[in-house]
Amino acid sequence: MSSVIDSHGHAHDGHGHGHDEHGHHGPYGGLMRWVTTTNHKDIGTLYLWFSFMMFMTGGAMAMAIRLELFQPGIQFFNPDLFNQFTTMHGLIMVFGAIMPAFVGFANWQIPMMIGAPDMAFARLNNWSFWLLPFAASLLVLSFFMPGGAPGVGWTLYSPLTVQMGIGMDLTIFAVHLLGMSSILGSINIITTILNLRAPGMTLMRMPLFVWTWLITAYLLVAAMPVLAGAVTMTLTDRHFGTTFFNAAGGGDPVLYQHIFWFFGHPEVYIIALPAFGVVSQVIPAFSRKPLFGYASMVYATSAIAILSFIVWAHHMYTVGMPVTGQLFFMYATTLIAVPTGVKVFNWVATMWKGSLTFETPMLFAIGFLFLFTMGGFTGLVLSLVPIDIQLHDTYYVVAHFHYVMVAGALFSAFAGVYFWLPKWTGRMYDETLGKWHFWLTMIFFNMIFFVQHFLGLAGMPRRIPDYPLMFETWNKISSIGAFGFGLTQLLFLYIVLKCIRHGEKAPQKPWEGADSLEWTHLPTPAPYHTFETQPILK
Amino acid sequence: MKLSKNLQTALILASIALTTFVGIIAKYWILNG
């Protein structure tokens, strides 16, 4: 992309526009900087740190779950509390950790990648972020309500939701706030990308990360209100005498599942698409080649987004739908493998005959490629009705979606952090420790989740605190892997803090093959204000 | 009143979100499924 950029006669030496030399103020000092900031980089940082805190909170619950499952019998937690942990682990990881992480990347990167000075609605951006800590507090506080947190699973299925205590209401309100934050953030991202691109930065010249976020933001605008509607109906069923999901009053609990998964499946791609975007920046940079099949990547991403709205019922084959319905959703689901296959092919083709090096971001990107593809394959297995009916609600499903969510989204997020840390901080991370982080994460991840395929195939149901003796060995291995995985993420925290405080000074462009605007047109670290004068792209 | 291009884009997107939210509840409330 750098080849099409005219830098107004300034050399691409990191001082292209000298944005910090115009006498603009920097950030305010102290706490108020973070409370009142409207700067996209500050808000990106807030999102990323918030996401990490939630990752550790949700991770602590995962440790508790694996501790309980270390051996058969009830060991530490009563079954109610165990269910509360599984529910909150899911909600916190999906809405508190993974989604905000990629919104953090979007805030930092999108304006810099399209040559915009900031997000289109800077104050709205601040508000979008500051809704999150309140929502997260509600989720955590629900544990301390009478009856505890809801133990209904992250899908919040009716009729269990009607039977829960006041913690359920806190969770519903938290979901409303999280949804509002996501919708406002998405409106901001779409407006920024559509209206604030630098002259010459046509849609088909945008870095793929920006493309994936544009499509993701549309998905969010369309899908999040559906979830908000579902939990609002749950709320009115609980307190205002409606019976949307209550069979006794003429409602239908299965209706909730349809509405939830109409949101829930696009949600999978809301998480996955930005991850694809990060990987699509990292792999070309470390292959020293342009991304193979750029246009087909854009079309494949769009196709995945559209298809994601017509496959929702593959999550609920067992509710008793007609065979024709099952067949439709099965075929539609397998169809998603086509655009996803295009993407995997293009990433491999980008590496083909490239001048590859394997720094930490590339290791995580390749790790993503292997593991996400495995998660995709088990997804195809589960898309087949006869097999899904056998494996529904077993640990096979747990293994599948953790290969998609953890190996897909989290590995990609790690790749992104290591890739852009030098740009954000002006310092290099410790490469040796980064590689240790990757390999330990890779080994422990597979230790946790690969064996869960065996458990699922053998019939171990999910969301149970106790199990028959025959499942003990694989559960022990899985739990040991989980403790190792958790500890390894403390190493990640150490690496990031060490980079920020003591890292070696980063060169202007530490990655030889990186060619998007933030690397070619901005100094390292990126100044507080960037692109106040738009770059002109030829 | 002339709206800025950014505001126009935002209002269109916000109206889509709001319509979906209200519509999904209204469909099963007023139309009773």
- The amount of beta strand of chain A, in percent, is under 5%
User: Quick one: biggest sheet of chain B?
Assistant: none
Number of strands of chain B: 0
Detail the poorly predicted runs of chain A: 1-22
- Main sheet: strand order of chain A: 1-2
Number of helices of chain B: 1
The helical percent of chain B reads over 70%
Strand-pairing-aware structural class of chain A: mainly alpha
Give the total of beta strands of chain A: 2
Largest sheet of chain A: 2 strands, antiparallel
Distance between the termini of chain A: 10 Å
The quaternary state of the protein chains shown equals heterodimer
Question: Which descriptor suits the 3D outline of chain A?
Answer: globular
Radius of gyration of chain A: 23 Å
How would you describe the overall organization of this protein?
The complex is a heterodimer of chains A (538) and B (33). Chain A has 538 residues and is mainly alpha-helical. Chain A is 67% helix and 1% strand. Chain A is globular, with a radius of gyration of 23 Å. Chain A starts with a strand and ends with a strand. In chain A, 53% of the residues are buried. Chain B has 1 helix and no strands. Chain B is an all-alpha fold and 33 residues long.
Key descriptive features of the protein:
heterodimer, A: 538 residues, mainly alpha, two-stranded antiparallel sheet, 17 helices, 67% helix, globular, disordered N terminus, B: 33 residues, 1 helix, 76% helix
Quick description:
Chain A is mostly helical.
Set down the secondary structure blueprint:
The complex is a heterodimer of chains A (538) and B (33).
Chain A lengths: L4 E2 L23 H7 L3 H29 L10 H36 L7 H20 L18 H4 L2 H30 L12 H32 L13 H35 L6 H14 L15 H13 L1 H15 L8 H24 L1 H7 L3 H31 L5 H27 L14 H31 L14 H4 L15 E2 L1
Antiparallel strand pairs in A: 1-2
Helix pairs in contact in A: 2-3, 2-4, 2-16, 3-4, 3-6, 3-8, 3-14, 4-6, 6-7, 7-8, 7-9, 8-11, 8-12, 8-14, 9-11, 11-12, 12-14, 12-15, 14-15, 15-16
Chain B lengths: L4 H25 L4
